[in-house]
Design brief:
- The protein has 397 residues and is of the alpha+beta class.
- The protein folds into three domains: 7-245, no CATH class; 251-332, Alpha-Beta Plaits (2-Layer Sandwich), CATH 3.30.70; 336-396, no CATH class.
- It has helices spanning 18-28, 33-44, 79-87, 93-114, 129-144, 174-179, 198-207, 265-276, 309-319, 366-372, 375-396, and strands spanning 7-11, 49-58, 61-70, 149-152, 161-164, 167-170, 217-226, 237-245, 251-260, 281-290, 296-304, 326-332, 336-344, 347-355, 360-364.
- The chain has a four-stranded mixed β-sheet.
- A hairpin with a 2-residue loop joins β5 and β6 (167-170).
- It is globular and about 60 Å long.
- The model has no long low-confidence stretch (mean pLDDT 90).
């Protein structure tokens, strides 16, 4: 998103759920409302269910809320079917990646707490159309905010129990607690009930927003997303703060290097594709060489955000056969750049525009070009047209 914040702070005053996250973000960044709601309605909901962004007053605070109306047959709660619906929705590549990533975290948490294979997971409490829409809305927002850093202030623990398909369970629910390992909780505020839902927890985990302290910066946006419940003595809202940090020359970047010499080329290629999709990873590059005993190896270099180091390292050990990593923090200098979306005949194309000392340059997003253009000549036509339109747009603005 052009002129988007460099940091986003999530302040769970009352708690966080999927719909509260989406509503709060759309309240803070109203320019996202039209495209995000359109995607949620088209790909997340059947024709019998409506969706509106409404104003609610909760605990004396005016906030945005998502209002689902109508009815339709319940979707399948099987993880495999849920995933298939998202894969077949025709989503933009990045949005699909984020949506599947959030869903996978939910499934992995359920599989862990119930000691079953991930593919056997069947959702119950979140097996409804509104959950699917919430996940798609969150994915679209994450995509639009690009490289923003995410932070979460301490969460409310809640208390009591909830009724589930597996019986009466304590709050936070087991899958939610699994997802929130490493997150900070504040002292008990005395308000009972479920304060963080599984979907809200999965979004936080996907964003790796466990860090509490955001960098100093200028407040550029704020908004509130309200839940449907009313709490005594505390607003049931999620607050969002968008910050633009003061640019520092040579921002920190984490460099991770390792070698792989006992993993097949096919498996290594799949692993590296998965690593490119991990939140916090900026770039993945490989170099071929000879290792011990004359064996061919792949030397891998990953650039990542330092605050995502633990999550990225865990993903590397999960996806590859390497036994060790070399980590160091360096400084990098980057050009001022922004994303411009232009409309081509075949559909919209994202273009990254950069300001160089002597000129302005632009590069069309390869994934969008691949989808919009047919054949090498068609892709070249789309690429050239998108770049030209983006530069014309920047000259006028």
């Amino acid at each position: 998103m052009a002129d988007g914040p460099s940091s986003v702070v999530l302040d769970p005053i009352g708690g966080i759920s999927g719909d509260m996250f989406v509503a709060a973000m759309l309240d803070a960044f109203p320019e996202l409302a039209a495209p995000v709601l359109a995607l949620m309605r088209k790909e997340g909901l059947p024709s019998g269910i409506s969706l509106a962004l409404v104003k609610r007053v909760n605990g004396g605070i005016a906030a945005a809320g998502l209002d689902f109306g109508g009815s339709a047959n319940a979707p399948s709660g099987a993880y495999a079917e849920f995933r298939k619906r998202l894969e077949q929705a025709g989503l933009p590549t990045a949005v699909e990646k984020h949506a599947l990533g959030i869903l996978a975290l939910l499934a992995e948490a359920e599989a862990t707490v119930h000691a079953i294979p991930v593919e056997d997971v069947h959702f119950h409490e979140i097996a409804d159309w509104d959950t699917q829409a919430d996940i798609l809305g969150a994915a679209a927002i994450i995509d639009r905010l690009g490289e923003a850093r995410w932070y979460c202030r301490p969460l409310p623990l809640g208390s009591g129990t909830i009724e589930t398909a597996h019986g009466t369970l304590p709050v936070p629910a087991p899958a939610t607690a699994h997802l929130l390992r490493g997150f900070a909780f504040r002292a008990d505020d005395g308000v009972p009930g479920e304060r963080v839902t599984p979907t809200g927890a999965a979004i936080l985990r996907y964003l790796n927003a466990a860090g509490v302290d955001a960098p100093a910066g200028t407040l550029v946006a704020n908004g509130y997303g309200a839940g449907t419940r009313q709490f005594k003595g505390i607003p049931n809202v999620l607050r969002v703060l968008g910050l633009n940090s003061v640019a520092q020359p040579g921002e920190p970047i984490l460099v991770i290097e390792f070698e792989v010499d006992d993993q097949s080329p096919e498996e290594t290629a799949i692993a590296l594709d998965h690593l490119r999709a991990v939140v916090g990873v900026r770039d993945v590059a490989t170099f071929q060489g000879l290792g011990k005993k004359g064996r061919w190896l792949q030397s891998v270099r990953i650039l990542a955000d330092p605050w995502h180091s633990e999550a990225v390292a865990a993903a590397i050990f999960l996806e590859t056969t390497t036994l060790g990593l070399r980590l160091r923090e360096e400084k990098r200098l980057t050009l001022s750049r922004r994303e411009v979306i232009v409309d081509e005949e075949a559909g919209s194309v994202r273009v990254k525009v950069a300001d160089r000392p002597d000129r302005r340059t632009a590069k069309a997003e390869a994934d969008d070009v691949a989808v919009r253009g047919r054949g090498a000549r068609g892709r070249d036509t789309v690429r050239r047209s998108a770049v030209r339109r983006a530069l014309e747009h920047e000259e006028k603005s």
